[in-house]
UniProtKB/TrEMBL annotation:
Keywords: Heme, Iron, Metal-binding, Oxygen transport, Transport. It comes from Canis lupus familiaris. GO terms for cellular component: haptoglobin-hemoglobin complex; hemoglobin complex. One of its GO terms (biological process) is erythrocyte development. One of its GO terms (molecular function) is oxygen binding. It comes from the Eukaryota. Residues 1-141 form the Globin domain. This is Hemoglobin subunit mu.
Amino acid sequence: MLSAQERAQVAQVWDLIAGHEAAFGAELLLRLFTVYPSTKTYFPHLGSCADKAQLLSHGRRMLEAVGVAVQHLDNLRAALRPLADLHAQVLRVDPSNFPLLIQCFQVVLASHLQDEFTVEMQAAWDKFLTGVAVVLTEKYR
Ligand code: ZNH
């Protein structure tokens, strides 16, 4: 559960991302695939070196879903139910991949926002994304 202050920090971070979903999302995927090549096995259709257009399009969809989560901090489970079903039952993404994505997400934010991405914002964002990952992976059990 996020405190009132953490919620405010999550919203502040989202305000800095909003409008750049495709660009940030594409960089997130590029970092994920480069730093953790095993994650690419889930995206065979993106090929060995995914092109920019595909990264932008999947990156945008992923970040838009994060934006939906930001708007539904009080009912993440309900808001993300269809995505949770998709990841658990159709995509069968191993839950161990989520912390890798969360780490890359923070590097993307730090590299773009620099001093604007404060220590407190990183802590709140990490907690928020971990909550999203819990919801997206709990259908496996
Ligand atoms: Zn995921 C898909 C989100 C994580 C893999 N995804 C997806 C989508 C979205 C997402 C929105 C789209 C859907 C539709 O279309 O309907 N994810 C997400 C989020 C997260 C994630 C939010 C966290 C936070 N994923 C993930 C991971 C992985 C993945 C970690 C691995 C590595 N996804 C995936 C895949 C897919 C998806 C494979 C499919 C793609 C296509 O189809 O193209």
